[in-house]
Description:
The chain is an alpha+beta fold. The protein contains 16 helices and 27 strands.
Amino acid sequence: MKTKIRSVKYLILFVSFLSVNLFAQNPSFIFKTKSLDNYTPTYIGNGYISLASTRLGCNEAESFMAGLFDEAPGDIARIAALPAWNQIDLFTGTSWLSNENKKFEHISSFNQQINMFNGELSTSYIYNNNNKPVDVNVISIISRSEKNLAVIKFTITSHFKGVVKLKFPLKERKEPKRFELAKLTKISSWPESEWPPIWYPGFVKVNHTEANAKERTLSLSGSPIGRTYVVNISAKVLSDKTIPGLKIDADHSSDQAALTFTFPVESGKSYTFYKYVYINKTNGTEKNNGNNFLEKISAKSYSKIVKQSEARWAKLWKTDIIVEGKPEFQKMVHSMTYYLLSSIYKNSDFSIPPMGLATAGYYGHVFWDADTYMFPPLLLMHPDMAKSIVMFRFEALKSAIQNAEKNHYKGAMYPWESDELGKEATPFFAYQNALKENHIVGDVAIAQWQYYLATNDKKWLRDYGSKVISATADFWASRVRYNKEKDRYEIGDVVSVSEGLIDVSNETYTNSVAKLNLEIAGKVNKILNLKTDAELENIGKKMFIPFNKEKGFHPVFGNAAAGEGATELWSSVTPLLTFPLQIEMSQDVKKNNLYHAVKNLEKDGAGADMGVNFLPIIAAEVENDSLFNLVINKTVKGFLRPPFNVITETQTNYNYNFITGAGAFLQQVIFGYTGLRITDKGLEAKYKPMLPKGITKLVLKNFKFRNERYDFIVQNGKLRRIKKR
């Protein structure tokens, strides 16, 4: 009997292993390049730590940690780059590999690949300097199962007999040249083809280093300027076999530590090294456990670490979006899902910046992007990760209340740009947004409500979500003004969602999101058997929502003049009333709002890859298949950069990797193609499904709603919902 049980057990393990490896080779997860030109970096990450790609795979690369910020005098708070930890340098007798110039004159047979199924980045090439060719192969992994752990596998195959050196450093980065963004009222513009110069990462000042040749270990610690956190990085370097004649030197200074391995090589032989890196953040009093963790590491640990990380990624990919009929579209879905997953992890104390953990774009601040664009896909795919986003807002509630008091309002006024502490961090030159782009307050509340609707977790609602929803409703009660003549409540002097419109009154989206916020607060009171607030209910009922009765559409704001050529009327703002806000209106009004947005799309281009991704959702809702396919073509194409499907903010700028756009695109697929909506009644199939031309079948696989798992299948114009056991 035991033999039979054991055999069945091994069969299950074998089938599981085979399944994971088959999926890992699925071409829709794999992106590769053989060209050193036209290169936009990708990144790997586990939602806590990230690492950008570089062409050589082993030279110093940007790396970020969720919630690690600095705040230098005169500057704003910004996400800080970790001290450089990934570099491995090679010396074959003439020059170090890291000195290779931008022309890569000594590099040939270049190949680089990211496997998004398991988060593995691999790079290979021939390095031939002074007729001493060496095959280089680098594999970089950030563990999905151990959030603090990364490992670089570095293999060289020599094609000459001689001596080589390998250097494994940890080091402080160069401190950036600062802009006084807390003071400057104006900044110079820059070409769209360039990375914005004000988006430099924050700086970690190193204050301690160690290097031990005998133990083959390195360590480094430091703190970001203006913060009390301590960042600890520990590394251990091992080889896969004993190397005759190996000499190890250790050196360290005030800002870096390094191990240098010098050894003879034989032609045709390969030599493999592993750089294990453990990174953590403490409050200064906690013990750094990195060295203790690495003590248990051996060269044989690599395969175990890889398998554990792959297993965790495979578990995530059990929830997937499957597309049939257009392989390139499937690749896009998988890449957008991967980039979103790589920027968030469960039970964190942080949310997602617009560029995730890919870059220091938008200073790593948290905007409404997280609550409105990135949160909903995660909510149905991985609600445990989505919870981090709403919990970040709860933890920041005290700061939001203080921000409201500072600006002479009641309740909670969430920052336009939030740092990791929940404090306002908007640059001074854009401070009108901090004061007046108030719709974010309602966006935060809606995400809290959506989390409750999707999980039905009444305890969470009572302990956390209700606190945020109540405080944000109180903000709107103090923000509105009563128009006695027209017996309605209005909101004046705001910055529109269309941010070029400043100091406008009754911006339609802002008024609508405020009304929803107030209505949600009333619903929460009823669910939790709390006292009804008559004043809030009255404000919600009488909130003014601008509407042009003559032409049957919503203008962007209440005092906008109707008519052709008024560009403030033709934007992607008012369709947001239909989705994601789900404001009740007739089909004709939905169509008119949509058509005006499409006019602007044709006239001025797609703009930012945010709200435009919602236009196909609305086109499907009004059952206009020609417009549906038109806007898909205009909003999907042009935002992706080769070779790794990195998404940019617009079709013309260089602002990558725009995770906001990834979230918006996934919502287009999840809600637009299926007709599904999260409502008070549940996950409703409110509208007919519609698939883009060329796609024959769509499967939302293993999606979760109210503790039940489902497959949603769209095929032949119909939606099937299959409950899983």
